[in-house]
Specification:
Layout lengths: L13 H4 L19 E3 H7 L6 E5 L8 H16 L3 E4 L5 H12 L4 E6 L14 E5 L2 H10 L3 E4 L4 H15 L7 E4 L6 H12 L5 H4 L2 E4 L2 H11 L9 H4 L2 E6 L3
Parallel strand pairs: 2-3, 2-6, 3-4, 4-5, 6-7, 7-8
Antiparallel strand pairs: 1-9, 5-9
């Protein structure tokens, strides 16, 4: 399968995964809840933390091309317009801050998750609906995943790729069934998509697992796909993968 030449081949509808998933997304806003201490079993299946939210991974810089910043702002605005909440890395800089600011400006719920050690280095956003401060990068990714119903990746560097491919790996292992979408702004991910095709040809990635990567040319297409899929996706309980317990502190809300 050639994701680059025909990204629509990567699309897998909910009906193909499970014919019972037919309920439409409800466009509604949820009141933020305070979370002090939580177990991974709660996060990953026994207790639902949140709904109607998309986790966005992206760069802490704005990149070299104006289109990257423009797309980040557009995504935040469109998410708010569609009734979606945003979950992201909690900073006020780069594409991360731009996406959050755009969503906030249109009244969306925006939740940030940031390790204590990066609070000053990455400049924590002070205007969020809620900011969770956690103890490590591992806790950051696990909490972001638990709060979200889908995952988008805008352009970014090592951190963005690490976050996106970790949730992709969880999907491959059937830990969750949430859609994972690369937003290929101005062809930013073209080389990555060619590499993934190469990994399939070399038999390190199965074709079926390649289809877990959804590819959108822009934010509008990504959001359209999510709404077409129709139902909410849940992480499966799997405390053996993530550990038994982590603690978080809510700085706002």
């Amino acid at each position: 399968m050639d994701l680059l030449s025909d990204p629509h081949k990567a699309y897998v509808s909910c009906k193909e995964i499970n014919p019972q998933w037919k309920r439409d997304w409800e466009h509604r806003r949820y009141s933020p809840r305070r979370i002090r201490t939580f177990s991974m079993s709660d996060l990953l299946g026994r207790k639902r933390v949140s709904a109607g939210r998309i986790c966005v991974f992206c760069g802490s810089s704005v990149g070299a091309r104006p289109k990257y910043l423009a797309e980040a702002k557009s995504l935040g605005q469109q998410m708010a317009g569609g009734g979606w909440g945003l979950v992201y890395g909690g900073t006020s800089v780069g594409l991360m801050g731009a996406t959050a600011d755009a969503a906030l400006s249109r009244g969306a719920e925006v939740i940030g998750v940031l390790p204590h050690a990066l609070q000053n280095r990455e400049i924590a956003h002070q205007g969020l609906t809620k900011l969770h401060l956690v103890g490590s990068m591992h806790e950051r990714k696990a909490l972001m995943a638990s709060l979200s119903d889908a995952f988008f990746a805008l352009p970014g560097g090592y951190g963005t790729l690490d976050e996106f491919f970790e949730v992709m790996t969880w999907a491959q292992l059937n830990i969750h069934s949430k859609p994972c979408v690369l937003i290929n702004t101005d062809g930013y991910y073209d080389c990555l998509l060619r590499f993934l095709d190469h990994a399939v040809r070399e038999e390190f990635v199965k074709p079926a697992n390649l289809r877990l990567v959804q590819v959108a040319k822009d934010s509008a297409e990504a959001l359209q796909w999510i709404e077409q899929w129709g139902d909410k996706f849940f992480l499966k309980k799997n405390t053996n993968v993530f550990g038994s317990e982590i603690s978080g502190c809510c700085a706002n809300g």
